[in-house]
Amino acid sequence: MKAIQITAFGGPEGLRLVDVPRPEPGPGEVLVRVVRCGVNPVDRSQLTGRWTWLRLPHIPGSEIAGTVEATGPGVTSVAPGERIAVAMRLFCGSCHYCLRGQEQLCTADPRSATAPAIPGAFTEGGYAEYTVVPAVNAIPLPETVDVDSACAAALDGVTAWHLLDRARVQPGDRVLVVGASGGLGTFSLQLCRLRGAVPYAVTGSAANAAALAALGAETSIDRTAQDVAAEARHLTAGRGMDVVLDPTGATSWAASTGALARGGRYATCGILTGAEVTLNLAPFYAQEQEVVGSTGGARRDLEFCLDAMARGTLRAVLHRHFPLEEAAAAMAALSDPGRMGKVLLDV
Question: Distance between CA 62 and CA 38 in Å, rounded?
Fold first, then answer.
């Protein structure tokens, strides 16, 4: 089968289109014929060597949608020919957290203390014609949900859904969505509106303002030309934001925490620009502010997203499609200045 492998850490020159044997599903597994695979910053993190334990060559790709090609022994939950999306968290099903339905906190793999246990990172992924996943991660698609939407929901939709849950977004909350033009941000804006909250978009491209408004943004803040914290306070009559959703990490930390209202909640699900930050505890305790961590989501979060898509209340925003052999260009497209939404590989 055709696959894209990371053969060396560094830049796009480390990606190679190769022919490798098609994998076979073992007990409790399914073989998926990949139709779409999302391109995510987590793939770029693997390529640059962020996870030093990753063994090369390695097939990345954590946002997978396709059809079941074959099932391994003991699998009865799905059948060959079914359209599925792959739930993003790998889990044991028997630890303390899994038994409580908190699959995203599974303790089976010690690496998950600092990195998400997801297909394409802890296993071979979806930058390939076929991939093997646990059958419990194969979630059947509603009839009216297309494969592009399902692929976008598999990681970005799930992460946004769980992030809003963790941040306890409530009706009437003023919510600052950092990185609003990306796949995660475009879902977060819509989900804020579905919950009765009022989202404000932070973007690096003023040209995206109209599109962000169509997704629910009350208004947009151009981080390249405006002081984000000051503008957030101006837009809320000086009070600040009840919630800041920020997946970007160190670079935006000061602006995001500076935008918080009293009792405000800063919620993060990523460290794209670095993990180390400093925190002055005085305003946090005096103003009863919170820092909330969120990591992906569980199978039920994907089911919620797919159901909302089937009902027409949630939609995927797509930036560009690339063929599998152009995976390096697809990864570069994550940094397109005017990018709006998801980058997909057509496998």
Answer: 7
Measured at the CA of 153, the angle between CA 307 and CA 99, to 5 degrees, comes to: 75
CA dist., res. 301 & res. 297, Å (int): 6
Nearest-angstrom CA–CA distance, 20 and 12: 20
Contact in structure between 324 and 2 (CB atoms under 8 Å)? yes
Q: pLDDT tens digits for 298-346?
A: 999 999 999 999 999 999 999 999 999 999 999 999 999 889 999 999 9
Q: pLDDT digit string (tens) for 91-108?
A: 999 999 999 999 999 999
**Tokens (6 digits) for 346:** 């057509």
269 touches 244 (CB < 8 A)? no
Can you tell me which residue has the tokens 């939709």?
A: 157
- Edge-to-edge strand ranges of the sheet holding 174-178: 220-222, 198-203, 174-178, 241-245, 260-268, 290-293
3-class DSSP assignment, residue 271: coil
Phi, psi of 327 (to 5 degrees): -60, -35
- Secondary structure E strands in 40-100: 63-71, 83-86
In degrees rounded to 5, what are phi and psi of residue 191? Answer: -70, -35
DSSP annotation of 215? T
Assigned token pair, 34: 């990949």
**H/E element holding 259?**
none
CB 243 within 8 A of CB 173: yes
Q: Tokens in use for 303?
A: 């089911």
**CA 113 – CA 31 distance, rounded (Å):** 28
Q: pTM for this one?
A: 0.96
- Judged by average pLDDT, the poorest of 11-15, 82-86, 123-127 is 11-15
Burial 127-166 (b: 16+ CB within 10 A, else e): bbbbbbbbbbbbbbbeeebebbbbbbbbbbbbbbbbbbbb
Which helix (H) or strand (E) element contains residue 211? helix 209-214
CB 122 within 8 A of CB 90: yes
Query: Which secondary-structure segment (H or E) carries 256?
Result: helix 250-258
